[in-house]
Design goal:
Layout lengths: L7 E3 L2 H9 L6 E5 L13 E3 L6 H6 L4 E5 L4 H9 L4 E4 L4 H14 L3 H22 L7 E7 L4 E2 L2 H10 L2 E2 L17 H6 L4 E4 L8 H5 L8 H5 L2 E3 L2 H4 L4 H19 L15 H6 L4
Helix pairs in contact: 4-5, 5-11, 6-11
Length: 285
Amino acid sequence: MSKWPRRIVCLTEETTETLYLLGEDERIVGVSGYTVRPPEARRKPRVSAFINAKFDAILALQPDLVLTFSDLQADISRELVRRGCTVFNFNQRSLEEIFAMMATLGRLVGAGDRAGALERRLRAELDEIAASAARFAHRPRVWFEEWDTPLIGGIRWVEELIAIAGGEPLFPELQDAGGAAQRILAPEAVGARDPEVILGSWCGKKVRKQTIRERPGWGETAAVRAGHIYEIKSTYILQPGPAALTEGVRQLHWLIAHALGQAVAPGLRPQEKTDPDAVASGQAG
């Protein structure tokens, strides 16, 4: 009998992607239906959404470990424990907590050394982005919008990545606000701070830029006047794991550079499709 779990069900994408990066993907027997990274993970049985799960399907996979995330999956975790499953619930909300999650997951599967190497590589890449951003002539005020109704600002790891990517978060005082309810803001409050760049990622819903432009008072903001309203797919930035630390921060950096009319070194450019409005302009990428 192995002392490490051999049959793991991952109910959010970040633990799935981390296990793939650690070379431990064969242990994964079930994933969330929202999983898109890496693409081959979609061939695994899909046994959950985000706030609900197919309990019988999970049990049929005979997992010896189920990985869940935050209070949003607390009810799922509770029911799985009640049904006899071993559950580990992560709750990372910051960059350091994301790195801690990956280190913990590495230890759980006996891959601590590889997890350490992964952390060093990802930190080095973030340092490269920060060094590139340090060459910007200006750090623009950036509003990151996680949801539109009500208006919800970015969670901590997103705001930290904005700072690394070369921007100034519009509401730095909300950095420690973990829950979405704590980050609800009045549209007038956002407009009053005059964002220079607006980045939307509406949790899988397409960002409606015209709606943003038409909000009362927003037409006079620097971002709207200059047309610097862009979308980042939630799978790249709202997943508190490897995606945000790689593709997510690259897209942030590229779009901020575009807004400033500055170039980004080829090795730091996004690897996935970015906002077509920015691509069409021919700047930064």
